[in-house]
Structures are given as structure tokens and as C-alpha cells.
Specification:
Layout lengths: L1 H41 L4 E3 L5 E5 L3 E3 L3 E8 L3 E8 L3 E10 L7 E3 L3 E2 L5 E4 L6 E9 L4 E9 L6 E4 L2 H6 L18 H10 L4 E3 L3 E3 L2 E4 L5 H6 L15 H13 L4 E4 L1 H6 L8 E6 L3 E2 L1 H12 L3 E6 L5 E6 L2 E6 L4 H8 L2 E3 L6 E2 L1 E3 L17 E2 L10 E2 L2 E3 L8 E6 L7 E6 L5 E4 L13 H15 L10
Parallel strand pairs: 3-11, 12-16, 12-17, 17-19, 18-20, 19-30
Antiparallel strand pairs: 1-7, 2-4, 4-9, 5-6, 5-10, 7-8, 10-11, 13-14, 15-21, 20-21, 22-27, 23-26, 24-25, 24-28, 28-29, 29-30
């Protein structure tokens, strides 16, 4: 018995020691995690050294004003050449070429501000037409890398197209970090941050530090866009691209219609006065990532009579903050009530990557003027084709949508898009198609083309501040 008691005491001592060690381990993990948070999210001290691809590059701003220079930062281990192409009615080659010598840049990478590279090329933009351009780097062994560059208008335009440049950054995993991939954050902080993002839990330090934040610097190559733009000159159809390639469908249409337009970045919409002097603002393709400034600008623009078309879906779903060198994701989900009150519809994941056409709901509305459609008519789909204009990600009418006119509803078996008309008290309005897939169908669906023509014509009938018919 005495021996057994000693064994029991020894077992108890071992268990107690195990508990102490476990508590110490947890405390150590907690202290390590806290230290990483303080270093990464508050002090913004987070650097690493990356192995660079043989050919890569970036532009350090999402857009440049017409007349200013495009600064390109290139790393190439072989001699290369740069060409510039514009997305218009066709993919127009500028016919100019720039030699790029062997240029070895540092692999030292700051997760908040990106690379501190020296510019390799500066291209004057005065001789180029504003719009979306693609800079194509080609090394002497045939390797290519593509960089989209927006040359924005310096003077007011009638139609301002807001490219979804924040979304472009969100999908860029270069450096190990995008909204959807994270191989850069040290463990166990990676799991903690992921759990906090998914559950939309966070806190602020002072009045400007959101924890956990997610840095998306401009000064890094965008591998998502390079892949997205691959083969662009061979196939003018954007299919279901939701990034830079998807922008082309609307730009082709506007040029065919001879509409005076300018293209701007999300950041331009937040801080540049030119986009909100337009008679119509169009948000294109996948306008998901919004800052407080963008939300405020949209509300003010519509209240003073501005007209807006969302040829886009999954709109205003996540919130970012603009930094000097990029973006920081600060809110994993904007409240659905905020989206619905402002846009007339709000995103939900119901029907994710499901597709259908649209079924006409209110053929008497002016968006269908002259199109000869009837209630229940379906457009934006082809029998036997697996995709449709309502799909990929879709926005729906909610109890917070307020006074909206439902124009059409998707035929998706789950989670259809709601195309709505949302008027404002100030005389402005929003036509919201509520679908990421919608833009890809613009140049193949006559009814959708007619809707966009009617929206443009109605908007251009008066300046910002005049009342449009409902």
C-alpha cells in the first residue's frame, strides 16, 4: 500500500508538472502571438527576403494621370523588351518598344510597403489615349509578364468607369499574402488571424490601428493579374474573368458606342474629384473592396443627383483602408444593411458559382425602353451553356433595401441576382445588376446592351443634380 501511495503521489506529481508545462507552453504561445501582433500589426515591422522570378515587375500606383509618367519597376535576369497595348474596340498595340537591360533587384520585401526597388523605366503618357493599358514584358527566351496600367483622364468626362483595382490587389498572393492565401504570417498567428477574419472579429488600437490587419502593398508584382491577362490578344472575349481582363468588355462596348469615358481606380474614386464630376459613374465587374471614403463619396454623389450603374456583383462586401503604399483589409464583412440601404441589394453566398439568365420583372421601367421585352422574358443565357449573366457571386434584395424597383431577377436555382433601380432623395439613382458575371455578357446579349444604352442616355440627359425619371 505504501508503495502504491508513492506511485500515486509520483503520478500526481507528473500530472501536475504536465499541467504546469502545458500552462507555460500556452503562455509562451500567447506571448509569442502577442509579440507577433505587436510587431506585425501595430509596429508594422515585417520584412523577409524572397527569391524573385527570372522576369517580373510592377507599377507602383494603380493609375497615373494622363500627361504624367508611368513608372515601371522591373527585375529581369535576361535582356527583355516592353510593349504597351490598350484595351479599346480592339487590343491596340502602341507599336512602341522599350529595351529593358538585365536588371537585378533586391529580394528584400516589406509586407506593408512592398519592394524598395529603383524604377527601371519611365514612360511619358502624353502621347497615349487614356484608358486601361497592358505593359507586356518579354525576355529574350520568350518568358512574359503582364502589368495593367490605368491612364486616367485629367479633365472631367461624361462617364467615369471605376475599375475594381482593390479587388485586383486582394487576389494577389505575391509575397505569400492575399485575402485568400496566407503562407507569410508566422504560426500560430496565422491561424489566429484567419479565425478572426472569418468570424469578423477585431479591435482597434487608438483611432487607426485595426487588429488583425492584412497588408496588400502596391509595390509588388501582381501574379493574379499576369495570369488573368494571359492570352489576351488571342481571345477578345473576357469569359468570366473578374479581374483586369473582365474590364475590357465594358470598354469595348463604350468605344463602339462612341461614349466619352475615362477609367479610374478605386483609390481615384475615393480621393480624386474628377470621377464624381461625371454624369454617370459605372462600377465594373467585381467591386468588392471599399473604403470608408469610397462609401462616403458614393452616398454624397447620389444625394446630389449623381447616376450610377453597377455592372458588377459582390459589391461593397469587404472594407479596406488606403495606406501610403497600398491597402489594408480592416473589415472582413461590411454589414448587409449598409450595402442594401445604399445599393438596393446586398451580397450573400447563396448560389455561389451558380449561373442563370435574368427574367424580366418590370418591363415598363425606362431601363427597358424600346427593347420590346415582356414580363417573364429571359435574357443573358444560352440554352445548353453552363454559365449566364446572373452568377459567379450575386447580390439580393433584403429588408433594408428600402424603396427599390426590381427590374429583373436571375433564373439561378439558388441565390439569383436581383437587378434593381434605387432612387435617392436628392434626385440621383443607382441601377445595380448585382452579378459578377454580368459584365462578361455585355457584348453577346442585346437586351443587356439595350439596358446599358438606356442607362447612359438617361444619365447624360442632364448634369449631376438634375432629376432623372424613375
Amino acid at each position: 500500500m505504501r508503495q502504491n501511495r508513492r506511485v500515486t503521489h509520483a503520478g500526481a506529481a507528473t500530472a501536475a508538472a504536465t499541467r504546469v508545462l502545458a500552462a507555460a507552453a500556452v503562455a509562451g504561445v500567447g506571448a509569442t502571438t502577442l509579440g507577433q501582433i505587436l510587431r506585425i500589426d501595430i509596429r508594422r515591422k515585417w520584412t523577409t527576403t524572397l527569391r524573385l522570378p527570372a522576369l517580373t515587375g510592377f507599377c507602383d500606383e494603380p493609375s497615373v494621370t494622363h500627361g504624367e509618367a508611368i513608372r515601371l519597376f522591373v527585375h529581369t535576369e535576361r535582356p527583355a523588351e516592353l510593349s504597351l497595348h490598350r484595351m479599346g474596340e480592339e487590343l491596340a498595340d502602341s507599336a512602341q518598344r522599350w529595351d529593358v537591360p538585365v536588371t537585378i533587384q533586391t529580394g528584400r520585401y516589406d509586407h506593408w510597403s512592398g519592394f524598395d526597388w529603383e524604377p527601371t523605366l519611365e514612360i511619358a503618357t502624353g502621347g497615349f489615349h487614356p484608358g486601361v493599358h497592358v505593359a507586356v514584358l518579354t525576355s529574350d527566351d520568350g518568358t512574359t509578364f503582364r502589368i495593367p496600367v490605368i491612364i486616367k483622364a485629367s479633365e472631367p468626362v461624361e462617364v467615369a468607369v471605376i475599375a475594381c483595382t482593390n479587388t485586383w490587389q486582394a487576389y494577389n498572393r505575391f509575397g505569400g499574402m492575399s485575402v485568400y492565401d496566407d503562407t507569410a504570417t508566422p504560426r500560430p498567428l496565422r491561424w489566429v488571424k484567419h479565425a478572426m477574419h472569418v468570424t469578423n472579429v477585431g479591435f482597434t488600437v487608438g483611432d487607426r490601428r485595426r487588429i488583425p490587419a492584412l497588408p496588400l502593398p502596391f509595390r509588388r508584382p501582381n501574379v493574379a493579374l499576369d495570369k488573368d491577362l494571359g492570352g489576351l490578344g488571342l481571345d477578345p472575349v473576357a469569359h468570366l474573368s473578374h479581374l483586369a481582363r473582365g474590364e475590357w468588355e465594358l470598354l469595348r462596348f463604350l468605344e463602339q458606342e462612341r461614349v466619352e469615358y475615362g477609367v479610374f481606380s478605386d483609390r481615384d474614386f475615393a480621393f480624386d474629384p474628377v470621377p464624381t464630376t461625371a454624369k454617370l459613374v459605372i462600377f465594373n465587374v467585381h467591386s468588392e473592396y471599399w473604403s470608408e471614403e469610397m462609401i462616403g463619396q458614393l452616398g454624397a454623389y447620389v444625394q446630389r443627383g449623381g447616376r450610377v450603374l453597377f455592372l458588377s456583383g459582390n459589391n461593397m462586401y469587404r472594407k479596406v483602408a488606403f495606406l501610403a503604399d497600398g491597402l489594408s483589409l480592416v473589415d472582413y464583412k461590411v454589414s448587409r444593411s449598409t450595402m442594401a440601404r445604399l445599393l438596393g441589394a446586398a451580397y450573400s453566398a447563396d448560389g455561389y458559382v451558380g449561373y442563370g439568365g435574368y427574367r424580366v420583372f418590370d418591363p415598363s421601367h425606362w431601363v427597358f425602353r424600346g427593347l420590346g421585352v415582356c414580363r417573364g422574358q429571359i435574357f443573358g443565357s444560352v440554352p445548353g451553356e453552363p454559365t449566364g449573366a446572373s452568377g459567379f457571386e450575386t447580390d439580393k434584395v433584403t429588408g433594408d433595401s428600402g424603396a427599390v424597383t426590381i427590374l429583373a431577377v436571375g433564373t439561378n436555382t439558388e441565390g439569383p441576382a436581383f437587378m434593381v433601380f434605387k432612387p435617392s432623395a436628392g434626385g440621383g439613382w443607382i441601377v445595380n445588376c448585382g452579378s459578377v458575371a454580368c459584365a462578361a455578357w455585355l457584348n453577346r446579349e442585346p437586351v443587356l446592351q439595350g439596358i446599358v444604352r438606356n442607362v447612359i442616355a438617361e444619365a447624360l440627359r442632364g448634369g449631376v443634380g438634375s432629376t432623372a425619371s424613375a
